[in-house]
Design a protein that fits this description.
Number of helices: 4
Structural class: alpha+beta
Distance between the termini: 18 Å
CATH superfamily: GTP cyclohydrolase I, C-terminal domain/NADPH-dependent 7-cyano-7-deazaguanine reductase, N-terminal domain
Number of strands: 4
Shape: elongated
CATH class: Alpha Beta
Strand content: 25-35%
Oligomer: single chain
């Protein structure tokens, strides 16, 4: 299966269990690996034979910036489910990084990564 990569998409969202997270918000980073057959697009050079990268970005942006979830796990799952339902993808790998969760300690970030396949949703 061929792959399309999105690395380091950056969005401002209001996800988290604590009130301050919902009120103040913070930056979230999203990485994607999208699997689909790109042989037609490689031969035709026609956008209709692949996915429009801007549409993928906008889909993720609307979820991260326009919806609110307590858990990064749920945010990650919704991104995966929405991408599979709206685009002709065979599989998605979604990684959501929360660089500043309210944890007392020293670390770079916390991230959730999920892999979902079209057949996981029966579509």
């Amino acid at each position: 299966m061929d792959k399309i990569y999105f690395k380091g998409m950056s969005f401002y969202g209001y996800h988290g269990v604590f009130g301050a997270e919902a009120e103040l918000g913070q930056r979230f980073y999203v990485d994607l690996v999208l699997s689909m057959d790109l042989s037609r697009a490689g031969a035709s050079d026609d956008l209709a034979d692949t996915v429009n990268y801007a549409d993928i970005f906008t889909c993720v942006q609307k979820i991260v910036e326009g919806e609110r979830y307590n858990l990064v796990e749920r945010l990650t799952a919704v991104i995966a489910e929405r991408l599979l339902s709206q685009f002709p993808l065979a599989q998605v790998q979604v990684k959501v990084t929360k660089p500043n969760p309210p944890i007392n300690g020293h670390y770079d970030s916390v991230a959730i990564e999920m892999i979902r396949r079209r057949e996981d949703f029966g579509s």
